[in-house]
Amino acid sequence: MKLQVERDPLAEAVAWTARALPARPTAPVLAGMRLQAGSELTLSTFDYEVSAQSTIPVQADEPGTVLVSGRLLAEIVRSLPARPVDLTTDGTRTTVKCGSATFTLMLLPTEEYPTLPGMPETTGTIGADTFASAISQVAIAAGRDDTLPALTGIRMEINEDTLTLVATDRYRLAVRELRWTPVAPGLNTAVLVPARVLSDTARALTSGAEVAVALATGEGGMGEGIIGFEGSGRRTTTRLLSGEYPRYQTLLPSEFSSVAELPAAPFADAVKRVALVAERNTPVRLTFASSEVLLEAGAGDEAQASEAIQASYDGDEMQIAFNPQYLLDGIGAVDSDTVRISFTTPTRPAVITGKGEAHPDYRYVIMPIRSAG
């Protein structure tokens, strides 16, 4: 293999592809990044669960395929000066030359590298920025406990031209509805995608206008098959998660006895300040009255803090307590300068949405801490 490529597109392609490298590869070849040079340069990584592939234009004098250490290549390319990069292979080595800098990498056995899964047929498309924003809104509520694998995923529900994203860790729930463009009419299905992979992919595909979603489920439905995402010369696939997902619809309150509206930024700042005295797993207490909300943390012989901010409130005076970080996550995820919090009782879930939305496309449900007050 012998080729020349510009440093910036190479660095971006290598960084994108290196995302799928396993932290602890089960076989040495899985730590490799495969480079296939022809009319284009295709870079690939795969760990049997997640694959990543990026394609960039090159000037290839001699086509070929090599496998090199992915993390080492990423570190090298990131450090190179902004000049053309020459890649050449000789026997068991690949040489990376850029300006006066030269690196020699040992090759891994290409024949032992697993075959990447094929990209399923495109199921639909969605705006890249909209998709990334929606994923970030729900991913905050995904679980991180690997003993409950189903909760570490984001549930994607497809109902014709409506895409619903759901995540929960049992203490909060995030739901986002958005429009997308399906390839075929009448599509109605649901799959569970690893939240970490989906978050990384959505952020990395914003360089293009659209993201193509490609779904292949087995006959058994959710948990069988793969899902793929593609845009701007980049594609990734991941296996779907299996397991029973909670019936989240029952957790979404439909009626409320009290509603408060608060300025998002001052509210978040006040929560951060008051939470400074809150020990780990200690709540922040919120007391809502007609024109303000009083935030408090700490009690007894502990450090204490309190702060009042203006709020619009409709309902009887109520005190409710939340995990401060969970509360901040919800405030930050709402795409509005005003946050609406709707309640039923101090022991029932509260719902955070944007200002005055009769049918909000984003809802963040947070469980209160019952020891309040």
Descriptive notes:
The mean pLDDT is about 90. The chain has a 9-stranded antiparallel beta sheet with strand order 6-2-3-4-18-17-16-10-14. The protein has a 9-stranded antiparallel beta sheet with strand order 15-11-12-13-27-26-25-19-23. A 5-stranded antiparallel beta sheet has the order 5-1-7-8-9. A hairpin with a 2-residue loop joins β8 (about 95-100) and β9 (about 100-105). It has 3 domains: about 1-110, Roll (DNA Polymerase III, Chain A, domain 2); about 120-250, DNA Polymerase III, subunit A, domain 2 (DNA Polymerase III, Chain A, domain 2, Roll), CATH 3.10.150; about 250-365, Roll (DNA Polymerase III, Chain A, domain 2). The chain has about 375 residues and is an alpha+beta fold. It is about 15% helix and about 45% strand.
Chart the SSEs and their pairings.
Blueprint: E1 2-5, H1 7-18, E2 32-37, E3 40-46, E4 50-57, E5 59-62, E6 64-69, H2 70-79, E7 85-90, E8 93-98, E9 101-106, E10 122-127, H3 128-139, E11 153-159, E12 162-168, E13 172-179, E14 181-182, E15 188-194, H4 195-204, E16 210-218, E17 221-231, E18 234-239, E19 258-263, H5 264-274, E20 284-288, E21 292-297, E22 305-310, E23 312-314, E24 318-322, H6 324-333, E25 338-343, E26 350-354, E27 362-366
